[in-house]
Amino acid sequence: MFHRTQRLFLRPAWPEDWEAIYRGICDEGVVRNLARAPWPYEPEHARDWAKRPLDPSSPTWLITLADSGELVGCIGIDPHDGEVEVGYWIARAHWAKGFATEAGQAVLEIARMMGHARLVASHYVDNPASGRVLRKLGFLPTGKTENRMSMGRGEKVQATAYVLNLDTTESLRAA
Q: Which SUPFAM superfamilies match (predicted)?
């Protein structure tokens, strides 16, 4: 599955992408905010991730610049505790450029086309930038925090939970 936005091209990862993935994610400042990426992040982690089988019910996309193909990060939707969760990471060189929000808007469109009515997301409490992205996308805080595992930190960390009902007009706010 592919998707084009104004500045970005979202596409599946291919095995030959492993080096670009490794360069983008091999940063403790990135990995510490992810649930499933270990630290230290090794080349074999990127190789294994890039060659994993694609699952159409749980799509993940590389976020690339549409004009150059440069890797910006990764975004996807995945089952989590009976819900459908949005998760993403952005390489440090691309922080604070609006790419997470732009890619997130694309994924919300795809989730609607897939028939999802509700999405969840969370961010670690010490990563407020991710919370700002989620709110720009229309996610609303649930008022709950939960301990979520961060493999990069090697421990559970407090995370703020969000929800987005895709079938309401309130959730269609523009960023």
A: Acyl-CoA N-acyltransferases (Nat)
pLDDT tens per residue, range 38-69: 999 999 999 999 999 999 989 999 999 999 99
Side chain identity, residue 88 = Y
For the record, the structure tokens of 52 come out as 């994993």
**Domains plus CATH for the chain?**
3-172 (3.40.630.30)
Query: CB of 18 within 8 A of CB of 62?
Result: no
Q: Quick check: 133 and 100 in contact, CB under 8 A?
A: yes
3-state secondary structure of 152: coil
Given a contact cutoff of 8 angstroms between Cβ atoms, the answer to whether 12 and 61 are in contact is yes
Please check whether residue 44 is in contact with residue 19, taking contact to mean a CB–CB distance below 8 angstroms: no
What distance in Å separates the CA atoms of residue 42 and residue 26, rounded to the nearest whole number?
A: 7
